[in-house]
């Protein structure tokens, strides 16, 4: 697995495009680093950068950006809505894949030590990188902000972890740490009152508020949302106040839960939520979960495409109220996708057909079988979705929604297999292109060809499994779906049976060149039984269809 480390430094400059561009260029120039997002905010006077890569180049890019920010940003002239204490205010490292939190914490410590030693900036470790629990909370470290740090760094209990124990008026102080993926999320209110925004933030944030008792003592009254930090502020740029939140564990409090809870708390104070904004990047799952959540609240089928779920999430959360929200630029998984040659499934139907009809041997029957199977699964899914909101069937929406979800999973995998069948064929042909002069080369070539051919046999077999697995859905729709769509279920059954039989032909022809291979023989034998079942199910479905037409 590729070792991917994410870095999300926050610099105290969001208004001067020249400074932002210089920092952008410095990060992008480091080989091995991929800059994913630059998100400046004028009201906060702060820019959040997001970049990923192997740990070593990421650490180098972070150091260079911190160094440059210290040269370009003068904190003596800085003002903004967001709490801050330095030119580079915070620099968190986030493990993405192939790296543990403990390893990320070590990299954070290494970076902090270098910044303190080479740049003479006071540095505090935070979150997982900070060994002292009482100093791990960023809000506690930053308390007093830039204006208060001159005295704070002189206190023995607040001696910086690295760098001088003296205040740098130009560059301020910096916090470097390691943490889980954090979603920075602001919710827009129909008020200009910062006090009301703060009150709502205190209602929902985990820390809550301090409440004075009749006897003069104080107790902490927790808020309603776990793993949430929040404050209130006013954004002159947009003329609204916001509840600004950090969701530190989105498995505990997802974006949609935070949104609805702020809606509730705001309504109790006579304030209305008008929309929201995400700062930086968001995991795809957050938007998919939000899309499903809002559909379920409407008692609508959640078995819709990924694209539709994302669109519903954006619309329901009002993510495009203040500025356009483009998922291709804001969803981390979309940005991490490696650029590839055009996939078959990305082609128009006309182009895919033309490509199939060309002189090239691929795409061929295997890819077409997978495509036909995807169409059959899609038809069954369509009937389920239509039935889920049929007039008079309101109490059955969950039944049909569950069917549609299963259908969408099948469609997604079959579309992947359309291209995977061609990729498997290409791997076989690559083996045939290997040199075969010496005995060693011939043996190596034979091994590669046989391995690739077995893989090319498994792919159409998987098509058979997926399509056969979706045929009960098509049968259920033919029997119980809305009557006006029963013919669509019938066409879905015809597609599914053809896909199973077509994929089986590819299993057979690939296995034929693997004489004596036990797995290939097993796939052929099992495939014959699957063809029989598919034909039986098709016949049953067509009887049901004819009876209801």
Tally of domains: 3
The quaternary organization reads as single chain
User: What structural category characterises the helix and strand content?
Assistant: alpha+beta
CATH level-two architecture of the largest domain:
Up-down Bundle
What is the top-level CATH class of the largest domain?
Answer: Mainly Alpha
Low-confidence stretches: none
CATH topology of the largest domain: Four Helix Bundle (Hemerythrin (Met), subunit A)
Helix tally equals 17
Helix content: 40-55%
Strand content: 5-15%
Distance between the termini: 53 Å
The CATH superfamily title of the largest domain: Formiminotetrahydrofolate cyclodeaminase monomer, up-and-down helical bundle
Give helix and strand order, one letter per element, not per position: EEHEEHEHEHHEEHEEEEHEHHHHHHHHHH
Counted beta strands: 13
Mean pLDDT: 94
Tell me, what's the shape?
globular
What Rg, in angstroms, do the CA atoms define? 29 Å
Q: What's a concise summary of this model?
A:
With 549 residues, the chain is α+β, with helices and mostly antiparallel strands. It has helices at residues 17-28, 55-72, 101-119, 138-142, 145-152, 194-204, 255-268, 284-297, 306-317, 327-330, 332-336, 349-356, 365-388, 397-432, 439-480, 486-511, 518-548, and strands spanning 4-7, 10-11, 33-41, 46-53, 88-97, 123-127, 174-178, 183-189, 209-212, 218-221, 228-235, 240-247, 273-279.
Description:
This protein has 549 residues and is of the alpha+beta class. A hairpin with a 5-residue loop joins strand 9 and strand 10. The chain has 17 helices and 13 strands. Helix 2 packs parallel to helix 3, helix 6 crosses helix 7 and helix 15 runs antiparallel to helix 16. It folds into three domains: 175 residues, Formiminotransferase, N-terminal subdomain (Formiminotransferase-cyclodeaminase, Chain B, domain 1), CATH 3.30.990.10; 151 residues, Alpha-Beta Plaits, CATH 3.30.70.670; 205 residues, Formiminotetrahydrofolate cyclodeaminase monomer, up-and-down helical bundle (Four Helix Bundle (Hemerythrin (Met), subunit A), Up-down Bundle), CATH 1.20.120.680. The strands form three sheets. Strands 1, 2, 3, 4, 5, 6 and 7 form a seven-stranded mixed beta sheet that branches.
């Amino acid at each position: 697995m590729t070792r991917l480390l994410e870095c999300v430094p926050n610099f105290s400059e969001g208004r001067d495009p020249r400074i932002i561009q210089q920092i952008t260029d410095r990060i992008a120039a480091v080989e091995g680093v991929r800059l994913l997002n630059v998100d400046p905010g004028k009201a906060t006077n702060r820019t959040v950068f997001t970049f990923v890569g192997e740990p070593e180049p990421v650490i180098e890019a972070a150091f260079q950006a911190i160094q440059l920010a210290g040269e370009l940003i003068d904190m003596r002239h800085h003002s903004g809505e967001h709490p801050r204490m330095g030119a580079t205010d915070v620099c968190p490292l986030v493990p993405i894949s192939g790296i543990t939190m403990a390893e990320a914490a070590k990299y954070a410590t290494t970076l902090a030590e270098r910044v303190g030693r080479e740049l003479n900036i006071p540095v505090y470790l935070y979150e997982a990188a900070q060994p002292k629990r009482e100093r791990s909370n960023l809000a506690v470290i930053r308390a007093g902000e830039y204006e208060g740090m001159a005295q704070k760094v002189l206190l023995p209990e607040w001696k910086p972890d690295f760098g001088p124990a003296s205040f740098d008026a130009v560059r301020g102080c910096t916090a470097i740490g390691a943490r889980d993926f954090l979603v920075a999320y602001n919710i827009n209110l129909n008020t200009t009152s910062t006090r009301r925004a703060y009150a709502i933030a205190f209602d929902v944030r985990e820390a809550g508020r301090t409440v004075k008792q009749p006897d003069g003592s104080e107790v902490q009254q927790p808020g309603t949302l776990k793993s949430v930090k929040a404050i209130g502020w006013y954004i002159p740029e947009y003329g609204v106040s916001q509840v600004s939140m950090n969701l530190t564990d989105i498995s505990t409090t997802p974006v949609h839960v935070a949104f609805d809870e702020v809606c509730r708390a705001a309504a109790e104070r006579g304030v209305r939520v008008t929309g929201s904004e995400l700062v930086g990047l968001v995991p795809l799952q957050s938007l998919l979960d939000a899309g499903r959540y809002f559909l379920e609240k409407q008692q609508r089928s959640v078995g819709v495409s990924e694209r539709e779920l994302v669109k519903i999430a954006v619309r329901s959360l009002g993510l495009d109220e203040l500025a356009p929200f483009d998922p291709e630029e804001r969803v981390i998984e979309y940005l991490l996708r490696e650029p590839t040659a055009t996939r078959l499934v990305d082609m128009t139907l006309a182009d895919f057909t033309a490509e199939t009809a060309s002189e090239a041997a691929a795409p061929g029957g295997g890819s077409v079988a997978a495509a036909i199977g995807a169409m059959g699964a899609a038809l069954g899914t369509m009937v389920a979705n239509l039935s889920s909101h049929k007039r008079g069937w309101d109490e059955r929406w969950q039944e049909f929604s569950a069917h549609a979800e299963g259908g969408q999973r099948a469609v997604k995998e079959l579309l992947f297999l359309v291209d995977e069948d061609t990729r498997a064929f290409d791997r076989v042909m690559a083996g045939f292109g290997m040199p075969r002069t010496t005995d060693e080369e011939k043996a190596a070539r034979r091994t590669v060809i046989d391995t690739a051919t077995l893989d090319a046999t498994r792919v159409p077999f998987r098509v058979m499994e997926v399509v056969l697995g979706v045929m009960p859905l098509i049968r259920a729709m033919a029997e119980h779906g809305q009557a006006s769509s029963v013919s669509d279920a019938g066409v879905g059954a015809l597609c599914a049976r053809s896909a199973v039989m077509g994929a089986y032909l590819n299993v057979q022809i690939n296995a034929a060149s693997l004489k004596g291979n036990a797995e290939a023989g097993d796939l052929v034998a099992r495939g014959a039984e699957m063809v029989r079942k598919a034909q039986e199910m098709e016949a049953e479905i067509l009887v049901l269809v004819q009876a209801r037409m």
